[in-house]
Write a structure and sequence with these properties.
The protein has about 350 residues and is α/β, with parallel strands linked by helices. About 45% of the residues lie in helices and about 15% in strands. The protein has helices spanning about 10-20, 35-40, 50-60, 75-80, 90-95, 125-135, 155-175, 195-215, 240-255, 270-290, 300-310, 320-335; strands at about 25-30, 70-75, 100-105, 110, 120, 140-145, 180-185, 225, 260-265, 295-300.
Length: about 350
């Protein structure tokens, strides 16, 4: 039952629309401590809280971040952190017109009885955590479900259990007055064809929206964060950007209700340039074929790989890191409008 703390549906709808507004995208800066350790290892930086705070603070304090970033997904640790002058990161983002959000899932774990498949955990205690996050200033949340493609997988069990968890999470988030980013990701790991990815993505999206509707989730108050329809990264012949755009948009036209305000594609292991070029092609194809939603991006590595390398753990490199971040942000903001020039 709804409580007095629940935001009106119109507020959820307005926030969701602002998250996918034209010309901007969402920065995924919600890497867990373990995940960011891998990123830092690659650039020879020790994974300490101070280094994590310095790096993320450099991104958030970039002067024009609000010109191309509508929202930032934060890790729980980051939501409570402050910059060197005592300003919280939440307030820093708010001042720049950027909406703060937070990752709320507790990562993936092996799905019992389903070798090679995983389930995302974190529903236990989520209602209380969501209320705390809202009090800390978050206005949206994110939960990621992972679907693997391989021999005899995914199974119906893996798709159904992950879709059900996504819907339970989304309902709880909206109850708390927070917009849920719903992220069903079909991984590009493997040598499968783009047609196989299309098949699995379509099935995953159908099951996900069935569950969202069953749980009475307001579709106008969510943001969908899915994979693009891609060839496996180890496929012998990977599909072109034009093929990616056609199969992606057509897949979503068949599965995603027009009530959803926007689709923020994840980069999902693509290289920086590949993710941008594919987004540009999707935007062009979507406009030409009447896509009813905003088509935008929510990139992690697609926005951060270059600034991480430029920063390399040295405070003196922060201006260079911010310049690299600006370049990636502007490129993807152009691509989501179909205006990217390589």
């Amino acid at each position: 039952m709804a409580t007095e703390t629940v935001a009106p549906a119109t507020s959820l709808h307005e926030t969701a629309a602002a998250m996918v507004q034209p010309g901007k995208g969402i920065l995924a800066a919600d890497e867990s401590t373990g995940t960011i350790a891998k990123r830092f290892d690659a650039i020879g930086v020790e994974n300490t809280e101070e280094n994590r705070k310095q790096y993320r603070g450099a991104l958030f304090s970039t002067s024009d971040i609000g010109d191309y970033i509508s929202g930032v997904i934060l890790f729980e640790e980051t939501l409570a952190q402050k910059s060197g002058d005592g300003t919280s990161f939440v307030e820093m983002l708010n001042r720049k017109g950027v909406i703060p959000g937070v990752k709320v899932d507790k990562s993936t774990h092996a799905l019992a009885g389903a070798p090679g498949e995983v389930i995302t955990e974190g529903l236990d205690g989520l209602r209380d955590r969501l209320n705390t996050y809202r009090e800390q200033g978050a206005r949206f949340t994110k939960w990621r479900a992972v679907i693997n493609i391989g021999k005899d997988i995914p199974t119906d069990c893996a798709i159904d259990t992950n879709a059900h968890a996504l819907a339970r999470y989304a309902a709880l988030a909206q109850e708390a007055g927070l917009v849920p980013i719903v992220e069903p990701e079909v991984l590009m790991d493997g040598d499968h064809s783009i047609d196989r990815c299309h098949e699995v993505t379509e099935l995953t999206l159908r099951r996900t929206f069935d569950e969202l509707l069953s749980h009475r989730v307001s579709l106008e108050g969510i943001v969908l964060k899915p994979n693009m329809v891609l060839s496996g990264k180890d496929a012998a012949n990977r599909a072109s950007a034009a093929e990616v755009a056609e199969l992606t948009v057509n897949c979503f036209l068949r599965t995603v209700p027009a009530a959803v305000p926007g689709i923020a594609f994840l980069s999902g292991g693509q290289g920086d340039e590949e993710a941008t070029v594919n987004l540009d092609a999707i935007a062009k194809y979507g406009k030409a074929h009447g896509a009813p939603w905003q088509l935008t991006y929510s990139y992690g590595r697609g926005l951060q790989a270059a600034p991480q390398k430029a920063w390399a753990g040295n405070p003196e490199n922060i201006p260079a890191a911010q310049a690299a971040f600006q370049e990636r942000g502007r490129a993807n903001a152009a691509a989501r409008e179909g205006n990217y020039a390589t």
